[in-house]
Amino acid sequence: MAYDRILYDVADSGVATITLNQPDTRNALSNELLGELIDALVAARDDDKVRCVVLASSHEKIWSSGANLAGFDADVPLVHKHLGSERFVHIFRLLGELGKPSICAASGHVLAGAFGIALACDLVIAKEGVTFSTPEINVGVFPFMIMALIYRNVPRKKTNELLLLGEQISAAEAAEIGIVNRVFAPEEFEAGVRGWAEKLAAKSPLIMKLGKDAMFRQQDMAYADAIDFLRSQLTIAFSTEDIQEGVRAFFEKREPEWRGR
Fold first, then answer.
1. Nearest alpha carbon to residue 131 among 102, 152, 151, 111
2. Closest Cα partner for 150 from 103, 106, 117, 102?
3. Would the pLDDT of 69 be above 70?
4. Which of 25, 69, 126, 180 has its CA 20 to 30 A from that of 229?
């Protein structure tokens, strides 16, 4: 499928890379770009060859500047603006229900709504020198939707600081408070992202899907309900050939040959 605002590539390793590719707008999350991102995520989800998804950026300094502010002031019916914001919700859910691991490869600054997309990914890898911020309050807006993701990933008082002050935090600080998994020096960044993505792609796709689905579904369950649900998922995993192959390969000291069943 041809795209105008993103790039889509699937490597032989099973890693699909979706690259935000509107550098002239600093990858502003317009309805059109978000629509293409949704299409690409659905394509990756439905492609059995894809085992891991990386969200990247072609901009030299900015991963994404967040929502298109021009749309906030557009002279269109309010209901159109409301329906437009549904694309963010769709992307957050798609990443959670992808059935495959996702990595945000933050090679540039991550701002506003893009911060929410980064946190919706399973893992965030940042290049040394980039920053993360929710600057909406500084232009008379508020990061309403993405606060649901920030509060689920960051301690409450630190989240309050991010939302209310709108100041930037460094990649190093983002790693300290749990936003970022790993920070790489610029010369090591691409290899670092590729290494993590290929490791993820090498896991059993079936067990990864079962695990990913369970991760998403249990996160807001009551403790007792979560334990019961996860126990049932373990029983399902026991029924797969891949779990048996993985155990055999471990004892035979060889690499497993995943069958996906």
1. 111
2. 117
3. no
4. 180
The two beta strands, 169-170 and 131-133, are: antiparallel
Length of the chain: 261
Cβ count near 171 (within 10 Å): 24
What distances in angstroms separate CA 152 from CA 50, 96, 133, 206, 247, one per listed residue?
28, 13, 16, 27, 34
Contacts of residue 219, defined as CB under 8 A and 6 or more positions apart, other chains included, come to 152
Contact 61, 29 (CB under 8 A): no
- Give 3-state DSSP helix, strand, coil % of the chain, rounded to 5: 50, 15, 35
Q: What is the mean pLDDT of residues 252-261?
A: 90
Q: Which of 219, 231, 205 is nearest to 101 (CA)?
A: 205
Q: With 0-12 CB in 10 A as exposed, 13-18 as middle and 19+ as buried, what is 70?
A: exposed
For 74-109, what is each residue's pLDDT tens digit?
555 655 555 567 899 999 999 999 999 999 999 999
Is residue 57 helix, strand or coil? strand
Percent of the chain with pLDDT strictly greater than 70: 93
Strands 109-111 and 62-64: parallel
Average pLDDT of the segment spanning 55-73: 82
Q: Sign (positive/negative) of CA torsion 136, 137, 139, 141?
A: positive
Distances (CA, A) of 10 to 40, 41, 197, 213: 11, 12, 12, 22
Amino acid in position 23: P
pTM, rounded to two decimals: 0.90
Cβ(228)–Cβ(217) below 8 Å: no
Report the SS3 class of residue 251.
helix
